[in-house]
Amino acid sequence: MNRRQRRNPGRHPVTDKRVSDLTSTELHAQLVTDAVTGVATPLPWAVAAYDRIGKLDRIGPEAAYQRVRAEIMALGAVMPGAPGQ
Fold first, then answer.
1. Which alpha helices (DSSP H) does 1-85 contain, by range?
2. Is 17 left (phi over 0), alpha (psi -120 to 50) or beta?
3. Between 56 and which of 24, 43, 49, 61 could a Cys-Cys bridge form, CB atoms 3.0 to 4.6 Å apart?
4. How far apart are the first and last CA of the chain?
5. How far is CA 5 from CA 31, 47, 57, 66, in A?
């Protein structure tokens, strides 16, 4: 993924929202919803979402990913392509 894709990940294919338009809670919910419903979140959008959640919540993108992953696993769903799957 190049710098342009990271800066401008585009719009989500289902909701037509940009990462910059959403709060950390909305981004988290969207990522969980995508995983639970089997929607393939575009990689640039997902990376930008984790970066923004980490920045807004002051936890970093890895911790943001772990929070989303934990909720998805608690719901009994699986994150496609997640390490250890």
1. 3-7, 24-37, 43-57, 61-74
2. beta
3. 24
4. 23
5. 18, 10, 23, 23
Domain ranges of the chain: 40-77
Residue 82 to residue 69: CA distance in whole angstroms: 9
Half-sphere exposure of residue 75: CA atoms within 13 angstroms, side-chain side: 17
Instruction: Report CA torsion sign: 30, 68, 37, 42.
Output: positive
Question: Mind listing the pLDDT tens digit of every residue in the chain (85 residues)?
Answer: 555 555 677 888 888 899 999 999 999 999 999 999 988 899 999 999 999 999 999 999 999 999 999 999 999 987 766 655 5
Could you tell me if 43 and 7 are in contact, meaning their C-beta atoms sit under 8 angstroms apart? no
